[in-house]
């Protein structure tokens, strides 16, 4: 038995490791933008980040990104997505074509005995399974596999490189649209720009590419042509879903992809997570957001970034959640905004509330209309229901913040904290001039301007607020 296993491994050598090369140096003229195409966002993340994430699922040895236009920003976007693990960059200062872009990565890759998967930074919806299918077909040809190209058929192939096959259906060459004859242009099968190469043979052929074509560029597409002329077989992997592997060239396509991605995400949330969307066509949920079972989401809600929403929540129209964490059974009323903040189980937020900068609502707390919390914590079952600003404030349990209360946290230079205890009643229109502390069970009368700390169980009133009397403690 042992021996048989050994034989098995001898006849099936380990496949070569994969390196991924992502071409992302171009500006993308048809976007009509100052911003490099691969930095434009789809589902709230740059195009190149989508490609990087998909590439990583193939567990390549390395991912190299060719950068040029806005190289620093593209590099930063890649690092944000991938961290620093196994990612490298090659700079192509001037863009002389896709072949020239690959050449820029020669020092990083040329010596490695590996399979090179080439992708473009502007093909954000390509699925990992599709790339795996290409790699698998490439590997099937054995260790001599030199090049396999992912192709698709398009009703309107205008602008793309055409795949020319012989009468047996074998690869002959790729011709770019601008270099093709009228007859060649009738071919509907096009080059997706996604390829597998034997790394060393690819670079050897790339050295021989000359910029003799309509655009005066170094074409990567000449590499398969050269390999074929040298007598190697170039494999073609015809892919079903043309849309998936087509790149984004302009803002119309960007918008189309946005709606494809959105549909994909909502479908998954409905079918797998059990979320109800009243109107999926007008609800915007990022790919990385998580939402719990039996949560109901009304139209025009945006849930962005790494937001997590619990079970049995109701999120009414027009709310925006960005990197928010929402517990179970929470109601978020219309047009509320929750940014980088945390809302505990059973809380109620809004309408028109604004929580930001690590604000926290503990379980059962409630904020109502026109209430803003910045870097503030509202304790369990505490309430601030109307027209209030709480900045740099920490508020205890079962405290009520009256209408129109403001923490005056900013003296023009520095921000100061306000601390309010448990069971406090802050009267309407109280100004809390920070830094200030309000003890447990204290009460402020309407219109108080609190400039000094308030002892527990004390009623204050006036401008500035003066002690009126000691109160009976609520505590039993
Ligand atoms: C390329 C292919 C074409 C294919 C099409 C699929 C060539 C010559 N043609 O054409 O056969 O049908 O993709 O979309 O390869 N880039 C650089 N540096 C450069 C030039 C391009 O990094 O100097 C990057 C771009 O940023 C982009 C990718 O390479 O991400 C593709 O370049 P693009 O100019 O869009 O190639 P196409 O003309 O579309
Ligand atoms: Ca393109």
Helix content: 10-25%
N-to-C terminal Cα separation, in Å? Answer: 78 Å
Instruction: Write down the overall mean pLDDT.
Output: 95
Structural class: alpha/beta
Largest sheet: 17 strands, mixed
Distinct ligand kinds: uridine-diphosphate-N-acetylglucosamine, calcium ion
Count up the helices.
Answer: 11
Number of strands: 40
Task: Using the CA coordinates, give the radius of gyration.
Answer: 30 Å
Broad shape:
elongated
Low-confidence stretches: none
Question: What does this protein look like?
Answer:
The protein has 476 residues and is of the alpha/beta class. The chain is 21% helix and 30% strand. The chain has 11 helices and 40 strands. The protein has a 17-stranded mixed sheet that branches. A 9-stranded parallel sheet has the order 14-17-20-23-26-28-30-33-36, with no helix packed on it. Helix 8 (199-206) packs across helix 9 (222-229). The protein starts with a helix and ends in a 6-residue tail after the last strand. The mean pLDDT is 95.
Please describe the structure with a list of short key phrases separated by commas or semicolons.
single chain; 476 residues; alpha/beta; 17-stranded mixed β-sheet; 9-stranded parallel β-sheet; 40 strands; 21% helix; binds uridine-diphosphate-N-acetylglucosamine; binds calcium ion
Could you give a quick summary of the protein structure above?
The chain has about 475 residues and is an alpha/beta fold.
SSE topology sketch:
Layout: H1 2-11, E1 18-24, E2 41-42, E3 45-46, H2 47-56, E4 62-67, H3 71-82, E5 87-91, H4 98-103, H5 106-109, E6 115-120, H6 128-140, E7 147-153, E8 162-165, E9 171-175, H7 182-185, E10 189-198, H8 199-206, H9 222-229, E11 234-238, H10 242-245, H11 251-273, E12 276-277, E13 284-285, E14 290-291, E15 296-297, E16 302-304, E17 308-309, E18 314-315, E19 320-322, E20 325-326, E21 331-332, E22 337-339, E23 342-343, E24 348-349, E25 354-356, E26 360-361, E27 366-374, E28 377-378, E29 383-391, E30 393-395, E31 400-401, E32 406-408, E33 418-420, E34 425-426, E35 431-433, E36 436-438, E37 443-444, E38 449-450, E39 458-461, E40 466-470
Parallel strand pairs: 1-4, 1-6, 4-5, 7-11, 12-15, 13-16, 14-17, 15-18, 16-19, 17-20, 18-21, 19-22, 20-23, 21-24, 22-25, 23-26, 24-27, 25-27, 26-28, 27-29, 28-30, 29-31, 30-33, 31-34, 32-35, 33-36, 34-37, 35-38, 37-39
Antiparallel strand pairs: 2-3, 6-10, 7-10, 8-9, 39-40
Helix pairs in contact: 2-3, 8-9
Bound molecules: uridine-diphosphate-N-acetylglucosamine (UD1) and calcium ion.
């Amino acid at each position: 038995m042992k021996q048989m296993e050994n034989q098995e491994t001898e006849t099936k050598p380990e496949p070569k490791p994969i390196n991924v090369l992502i071409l992302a140096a171009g500006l993308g003229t048809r976007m009509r933008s100052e911003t490099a195409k691969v930095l434009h966002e789809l589902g709230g993340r740059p195009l190149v980040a989508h490609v990087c994430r998909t590439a990583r699922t193939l567990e390549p040895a390395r991912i190299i990104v060719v950068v040029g236009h806005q190289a620093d920003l593209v590099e930063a976007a890649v690092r944000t997505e991938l961290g620093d693990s196994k990612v490298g960059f090659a700079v192509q200062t001037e863009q002389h074509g896709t072949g020239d872009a690959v050449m820029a990565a020669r020092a990083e890759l040329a010596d490695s005995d590996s399979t090179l998967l080439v992708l473009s930074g502007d093909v954000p919806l390509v699925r990992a399974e599709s790339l795996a299918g290409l790699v698998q077909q490439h590997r099937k040809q054995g260790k001599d596999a030199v090049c396999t190209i992912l192709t698709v058929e398009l009703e309107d192939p205008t602008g793309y490189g055409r795949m020319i096959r012989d009468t047996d259906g074998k690869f002959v060459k790729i011709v770019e649209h601008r270099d093709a004859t009228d007859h060649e242009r009738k071919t509907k099968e096009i080059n997706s720009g996604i390829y597998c190469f034997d790394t060393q043979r690819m670079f050897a052929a790339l050295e021989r590419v000359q910029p003799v074509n309509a655009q005066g560029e170094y074409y990567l597409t000449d590499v398969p042509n050269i390999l074929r002329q040298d007598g190697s077989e170039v494999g073609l992997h015809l892919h079903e879903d043309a849309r998936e592997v087509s790149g984004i060239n302009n803002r119309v396509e960007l918008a189309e992809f946005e709606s494809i991605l959105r549909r994909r995400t909502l479908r998954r949330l409905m079918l797998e997570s059990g979320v109800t969307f009243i109107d999926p066509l007008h609800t915007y949920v990022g790919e990385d957001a998580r939402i719990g079972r039996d949560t109901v989401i009304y139209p025009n809600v945006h849930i962005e970034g790494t937001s997590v929403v619990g079970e049995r929540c109701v999120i009414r129209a027009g709310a925006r959640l960005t990197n928010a964490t929402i517990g179970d059974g929470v109601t978020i009323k219309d047009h509320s905004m929750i940014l980088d903040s945390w809302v505990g189980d059973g809380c109620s937020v809004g309408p028109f509330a604004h929580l930001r900068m690590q604000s926290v609502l503990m379980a059962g707390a409630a904020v109502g209309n026109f209430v803003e919390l910045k870097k503030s914590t509202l304790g369990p079952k505490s309430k601030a229901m109307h027209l209030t600003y709480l900045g740099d404030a920490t508020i205890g349990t079962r405290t009520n913040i009256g209408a129109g209360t403001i923490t005056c946290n900013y003296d023009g230079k520095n921000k100061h904290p306000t601390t309010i205890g448990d069971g406090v009643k802050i009267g309407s229109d109280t100004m809390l001039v920070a830094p200030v502390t309000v003890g447990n069970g204290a009460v402020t009368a309407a219109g108080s301007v609190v400039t000094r700390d308030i002892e527990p169980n004390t009623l204050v009133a006036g401008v500035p607020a003066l002690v009126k009397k000691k109160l009976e403690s609520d505590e039993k």
